[in-house]
Amino acid sequence: MTDLPETAQLLSQALRRIRISGSLQYCFMPQGDWTTDATPAPWRPKDAIGFHIVAAGPCWVDLHGRRTILETGDIAAFPFGTPHMLGAGEGGRLIDPGGDLPAQPWPATPTLHYPAPGPQVRILCGYVQCQATGFAPFRAALPEFIHLRTAGQNDWLSGTIAQIVTEVDQPQPGGGPILERLTELAFLEILRRQFQTPAPKGWLAAILDPTLSRALLALHDAPTRDWSLPALAQATGTSRSALTARFTGLLGTSPMRYLRDWRLYLATEALASTPDPIITIATGAGYGTEAAFTRAFTRQFGTPPAEWRKTRSRPE
After folding, report:
1. Can you give the pLDDT at residue 112?
2. Which of 4, 78, 104, 152 could bond 8 through an S-S bridge, CB–CB 3.0 to 4.6 Å?
3. Please, where in the chain does CATH 1.10.10.60 lie?
4. CATH 2.60.120.280 domain extents, the chain
5. Which residues pair with 54 in a beta bridge?
6. How does residue 209 score in pLDDT terms, banded at 50, 70 and 90?
């Protein structure tokens, strides 16, 4: 156990577990008045977080009829693929950059031009794949729309965004992987800032609660331990009833259900990143048989673990 407070340890653990497994980005440069349906395409991976990085603005994003102005350096992210519109001016032509993209693979980041009279906007669009959205408490900590301003902040995130723009504007050999890593690093920082935003309920509130932070840290540190409610209550120095009430009040779940969800999420990591047999992963998740694990996994993620592995496996 380190000397960090429980809150800092849990945030560090969360960031270590937020594995960015891939990304895709393209640039489009419309001029004048225009609109586009920027809802992520149906082929977007289920664990992807869509984004727009404004390299030169302004433009607007419309979500549920509410319009937000995006300026140069702004980042707009949509963790759940919420339908939205993007545009500039009023009554402009409808463009479809997603439909105009060339077939993959791309030797370089595609740039789509839409010339017209009027000012030009430059936007880097795409998504990052974030497996942590499969863990319900993390997922519940994310809003459907994240808007960050980086211009004039003079911090490393604003510098990273500036470098992303440079990589798009001045492509160099081998620049594709660099652009991907920069984008992924930026999104880790975006998520870290989101996790530090106060909330009345949910995982963010739970890690700031003295009792729950101790309980969560115990479960995260030793997920394979044969935990019981009395053992967890003893480890956190509280009663079983008080601990259950805190879990229910802030997380909307019981301690043992939280542990089950955490183990199943860790199982997805093992399925995606190791060749371990499913029975080995099932045992590590606390299940006595592969069949019981398969039933629980399928209920949680909508697909059996063997099928899930085929679609999510990636090289380390």
Report:
1. 94
2. 4
3. 203-312
4. 18-195
5. 123
6. confident
Locus of tokens 């977007």? 44
Q: 263-268, long-range: CB within 8 Å, 24+ apart, which pairs?
A: 263/223, 263/224, 264/296, 264/297, 264/300, 264/301, 265/17, 265/132, 265/134, 265/135, 266/223, 267/293, 267/297, 267/305, 268/131, 268/134, 268/301, 268/308, 268/312
Evaluate if residue 89 carries a pLDDT over 70.
Answer: yes
CATH topology assigned to domain 18-195: Jelly Rolls (2.60.120)
Which pLDDT tens digit goes with each residue over 18-74? 666 677 888 999 999 999 998 877 667 777 888 999 988 899 999 999 999 999 999
With beta carbons less than 8 A apart as the criterion, state whether 53 and 24 touch: no
List, in sequence order, every residue forming a beta bridge with 29; answer none if it has no partner.
113
The sign of the dihedral angle between the CA atoms of 136, 140, 146, 152 is negative
Question: 40: Cβ–Cβ under 8 A, 6 or more apart, which residues?
Answer: 48, 50, 78, 81, 127
203-312 under CATH 1.10.10.60, yes or no = yes
Q: Alpha-carbon distance 182 to 164, whole Å?
A: 6
